[in-house]
Amino acid sequence: MLKQKKKIASAIALSLIVPLALAGCGTDTTSGKKEEVSPSQTAQVKGQQNEQPVELTFYIANSPVKDMDRIMEAANKIIKEKINATLKLVVTDWSTYPQKVNLMISSGEPFDLAFTGSFGELNYFQNASKGAFKDITELLDKYAPTTKSRVPENIWQGIKVNGKIFGSINYQVWGMAGARGVQLRKDFVDKYQFDWKSAKKWEDLTPFLDAVKKGEPDMIPWEYSIQQDNFADMSVVYGMDSVGDNKIPGWVRYNDKDIKVINQYETQEYKDYLKLFRSWYQKGYIKKDAATMKDYVPDRKAKRIAALYANPYPDLVDMPELSTSSFMAMAPPDDKVYSYTKRFTEPFISANTPSTALVAVGANSKHPEKAVQLIELLNTNDELFHLLAFGQDGKDYKKIGEKKIDMIKDQYNFNWSEWEIGQSYGRMLWDQNTDVESREKSLNIIYQADKTAMISPVMGFVFNTEPVKTQMANVDATLKELLYALDSGTADPDKYYEEFIKKLKNAGADDIIAEKQKQINEWRKQNGK
């Protein structure tokens, strides 16, 4: 996610975001703006003119992209001219991307750049702590000063591991403050007269999901994906925040001044969640293969989803005028599949918000300096960023004024995944259906909330996994075995919950929680918390 990709989309985004994976993406560009070029880049190029160009590999997650070769040919002309390098962008489907990256890491296979984060199975903090990524703390200062300076220093603190930076933050147009909630298809909400404004928690959606299940046989009432687990990846919905990677045991409660670390899987909130989602699964609201479904994009593009998790801040209660450009996540914009968005939480900034969308340099990269130069170029050269994100003007999209574009059907389409390759803050282009005035108003609300939002009690704390790396690996294996089956409702919690908790403890969950508590106590003492 960002705002998982949509505010995440959506997180993140997510949230930032991640977003992950999100409802309605856009583009805040500065067409006609003078190209921003880092002074360090100018100096570097002068000294590189006699060098042989190097090829840099950059791994990202995305659905298949048409005409990628054409776009990369144009992109590489810019990259070669600016930093004397070429880019090989390796696109892997979301369903297999985390496994691909983790396999490269475990095998020691060299790579230059890879998208990563602290959600799903990407495990940025674990991978950074075990040496999978290059320490780029000094490289950012030397080769990517604009990338570094654009992000507030306190946000960089949120991704450090042992005081070092192992990923470049893809600072997004969506800002930092976010909320968790839902996105519902407007046509079905209206048809079944569902009171969406009154929804405050998952349970409140049951009447709507039931109506869709009975009246729309071709629809999926609720989307569940292991890339956006409705418990493990959404701690704030339950009044908690994760410490380190989302799914690993050891969360804290927002209102706990003592910052006690607890096993989130032993809380009443989790038990209630399992009961609800098991009932949803049994009633057919959730897909039968949900426990193994890694890629939600095809169903979204096919307009088969009636309701899904979202990062709606502001939502349509906060700003009703957003309704004219509120479309279901990843549905074809031209089809105008309108949605209602409703947040369940107050605005917040979680500890993992800074690590929602990162670009890491591989520890075994043969060209780490050049890789960081490319990061800076992607974040400062709007022509290059817009080329990769949206294609070529006049062939893949048409400009509609300064800040809007009309994507041309059946041409290059990056699936609104620009949040994976660089910083979109102040550089996006909005879809033609977007009300730019309303969108900018909503962004101003977010930027104001960045100053007043609920802040994670462990913001700035980074868990050092080294003392419990064996337990972390064992716990991770247990989570992959049982978590998604339980959280999707596939497995009966009456039969498997106790086994799940027992296996977590046997794997070392209590050791991890104790180590988190120890480090937090030391951090509080050092920082006067």
For the structure shown, list the relevant keywords:
five-stranded mixed β-sheet, 529 residues, globular, 17 helices, disordered N terminus, three-stranded antiparallel β-sheet
Task: Give a structural overview.
The protein has 529 residues and is α/β, with parallel strands linked by helices. 35% of the residues lie in helices and 11% in strands. The protein has 17 helices and 15 strands. The chain has a five-stranded mixed β-sheet with strand order 2-1-3-11-4. Helix 2 links the parallel strand 1 and strand 2. The protein is globular, with a radius of gyration of 22 Å.
Q: Quickly give the structural class.
A: alpha/beta
Which residues form runs of ≥5 with pLDDT under 50?
1-35
- Note the gap between the termini: 30 Å
Give the helix tally: 17
What's the layout of helices and strands?
Blueprint: H1 39-46, E1 54-61, H2 68-83, E2 85-92, H3 97-107, E3 113-116, H4 124-129, H5 137-143, H6 145-150, H7 153-157, E4 168-169, E5 181-185, H8 186-191, H9 206-215, E6 240-242, E7 251-253, H10 268-282, H11 297-301, E8 307-310, E9 339-343, E10 348-349, E11 358-361, H12 368-380, H13 382-390, E12 397-399, E13 404-407, E14 430-431, H14 436-452, E15 454-455, H15 469-487, H16 493-507, H17 509-527
Parallel strand pairs: 1-2, 1-3, 10-15, 13-14
Antiparallel strand pairs: 3-11, 4-11, 5-8, 5-9, 6-7, 12-13
Helix pairs in contact: 15-16
